[in-house]
């Protein structure tokens, strides 16, 4: 034995595989290259993921890592207040918007109902 804790290595490998699989399914590009200076938003997210989930959870299997990560993603994206929206949840922020979402196609003009005209004779 070389004194290496393979449990931590296996858990880290399970997490990398789960993240890679999730990114592939979601259609995102999974890139492990580069340094922290390339994208501050990604580094901020990585720090939150590490602090709020990875440092507090021990994954015993890949399915468990996928499940726990998906639950955390739902919490992070949908139920957690965000500072960019004045500490509202994404749903609360969306409900407060007056118009259609940015980039949405315009609504068609209102048409009067198509009612047949009575025949008067």
What is the number of helices?
4
Order of helices and strands: HHHH
* Oligomeric state of the chains present here: single chain
The average pLDDT is 75
Counted beta strands: 0
Distance between the termini: 103 Å
Main sheet summary? none
In terms of DSSP E residues, the strand content is under 5%
Helix content: 40-55%
Low-confidence residue ranges: none
Task: Categorize the overall geometry.
Answer: elongated
Radius of gyration over alpha carbons? 24 Å
Number of individual domains: 1
Structural class: mainly alpha
Write up this protein:
- The chain has 121 residues and is mainly α.
- It has helices at 6-26, 40-54, 62-79, 90-96.
- It has one domain (6-90).
- The protein is elongated, with a radius of gyration of 24 Å.
Summarize the structure.
The chain is an all-alpha fold. The chain has four helices and no strands. It is 50% helix and 0% strand.
Keywords:
mainly alpha, about 0% strand, 4 helices, single chain, about 120 residues, elongated
Write the layout of secondary structure elements.
Blueprint: H1 6-26, H2 40-54, H3 62-79, H4 90-96
Helix pairs in contact: 1-3
């Amino acid at each position: 034995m070389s004194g290496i804790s393979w449990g931590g290595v296996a858990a880290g490998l399970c997490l990398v595989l789960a993240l890679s699989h999730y990114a592939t399914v979601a259609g995102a590009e999974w890139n492990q290259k580069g340094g922290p200076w390339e994208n501050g938003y990604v580094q901020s997210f990585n720090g939150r993921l590490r602090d709020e989930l990875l440092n507090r959870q021990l994954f015993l299997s890949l399915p468990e890592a996928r499940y726990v990560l998906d639950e955390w993603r739902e919490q992070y994206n949908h139920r957690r207040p965000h500072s960019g929206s004045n500490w509202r949840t994404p749903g609360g922020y969306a409900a407060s918007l007056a118009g259609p979402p940015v980039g949405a196609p315009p609504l068609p003009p209102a048409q009067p109902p198509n009612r047949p005209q009575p025949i008067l004779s």
